[in-house]
Amino acid sequence: MGQHFSKPNPRPRTAKALCRAVVGLIASAGAFFAFGMTPLASAPSANADPLTDLIDVLIEPAIAASSGISPAEFLDPSILDTALSELATPAGWETAVTDFSSLGTLGTADAGSAATAANPSDTWLHGLEQDWINSPLGQQVDSPLNAWFAQADPSAVSADDPSAGACGLICNGANGLPGTGENGQGGGLLLGDGGAGGSAAPGSGEAGGNGGDSGLLGIAGPGGAGGSSATGDGGAGGAGGNSGDAFGGYGGDGGAGGMSTAPGGVGGAGGHGGNGGLLSSHGGAGGTGGRSILGNGGAGGAGGTGGWLSGILGISGGNGGAGGFSDAGTGGVGGAGGNGALIFGPAGNGGAGGFGEISGGAGGAGGNEMLAGNGGDGGPGGASDAGTGGVGGAGGNAGTLIGAGGSGGDGGSGATAGGNGGAGGTGGFIDNGGGAGGAGGSSSMGTGGAGGPGGNAGPIGPGGPGGAGGSSATGDGGAGGQGGNVGLIVGTGGTGGEGGNGAVAGGNGGPGGNGAPFIGVGGNGGNAGLGATPGTPGLGGAGGLLGYPGNNGLA
């Protein structure tokens, strides 16, 4: 660069340093994205400090390059113009890139450390990304890059439909306009958030726009709300965008379904949540189902799937959306929880069933886990003022290797009958065992709902307890759920659920689950419900070869 600047002038030296700082930022970002694309063949060492590794890899090169530059000089247009003109020449790039040649020596272990370090700081990274995109310097650097990208790959950025692809390389996708149902535009392929889907026009009954996908670093856009309708069904909510973030992205939430006021009209379904990215990512939540005044409520949207290693720090599959409210019919079904990550990610919980005048909506099932992690809880069933309560959603199954099954959702209360509780999810090979069964819903004029059965455990672990039966103010109490059984090696069977109390007859206690055949103790039976005619106690579960049976419940 010395051939372009005379030594007596102090500003070119500052421009030279600023030039190096810009290249440092680009090189650091390049290393960041390279890590996301590099197979994690070897795990980082046990004593590695992830945050330190992240700073070493991504931040220090840019800091070193910008040494000697005051913050005010970054804002000096003459210095910035000189630095950018330097970058327009091959010689200027050669000198600057030489200063950052050490980035090429980073190994696979460093890539793994940087990826892991991004997990607890996804919010911080997203803040850095947005600060850069919205800064004057970022806009001057990014605009030419995005223009070049549009010319180099026109198919990735559609001029006829801007929402069909990415907005460029480094940019935030445009939001769909409200009232149009437009899809949100995808974020930049490298950096940028996806745009939000536009809501549908009120009264149109049309679907909301889908959220835009995010790039390698960013958050996907939420779906737009569906339009209401006075002549038919409400519009469906738009789906949330998917995350392309390799480190800490989030799938967009699904949009809410539109309301229907037409006779027999159904509320719009909630949009599905977007899927998470590769590593520490979170699936988007499903949208809420639309309300219906003279028909059935809309179904809640399913939650999005978590990332590949998404649950290391408690991030998970997205929760299902709640079912829509119904003033004259059946409440909407709750959306299913999103499945968890391949490794360590808890699954999302199912959405609650909507209230329904005739019958409550069923709760959504909890999401399942794949290898290691807990299943999601089932959503509770919706209540009903004049009919039957909704059934609770089933708990999701745990990972095959380790994890606890999700709890079943409670049944909704109902005038003529309470809803049954959901079944608990199955446990993994080892851990906290099967999930608890959901409690049965109460009833004001009929029979209480039955408790859900507890989830079975794997070869090692306890069975889940059965849910309690629902009570009844004027009729019979509901039966308690059966305790979960245990697999082959060692574990205690789940306790049977207690029978619900009833004005006429008490509910029967649930039987206890069987212990492990080898070393196992049977679960105790559930106690009988009270009533003019008491219920029957539940029997204790069988014990194993080196164990004993459970006790019977009490009358």
Give a structural overview.
- Helices cover 19% and strands 1% of the residues.
- The chain is built from eight helices and two strands.
- Strands 1-2 form a two-stranded parallel ribbon.
- α1 (10-37) packs antiparallel against α2 (50-65), α1 packs across α6 (108-117) and α7 (122-134) crosses α8.
- The chain is flat.
- Mean pLDDT is 81; it is low at 1-67 and 69-119.
Summarize, please.
With 555 residues, the protein is mainly alpha-helical.
List keywords for this structure.
mainly alpha, 555 residues, 8 helices, flat, 19% helix
Low-confidence segments, given as residue ranges, are: 1-67, 69-119
- Succession of helices and strands: HHHHHHHHEE
Strand order in the sheet with the most strands: 1-2
Structure summary, number of beta strands = 2
Evaluate the radius of gyration: 29 Å
Outline the biggest β-sheet. Answer: 2 strands, parallel
Number of helices: 8
* Average of the residue pLDDT scores: 81
Strand portion:
under 5%
Distance between the termini: 92 Å
Q: How does the overall form come out from the CA principal axes?
A: flat
Given the helix and strand composition, which structural class is it?
mainly alpha
Helix fraction bin: 10-25%
What topology emerges from the helices and strands here?
Elements lengths: L9 H28 L12 H16 L5 H4 L2 H11 L2 H9 L9 H10 L4 H13 L1 H17 L337 E3 L26 E3 L34
Parallel strand pairs: 1-2
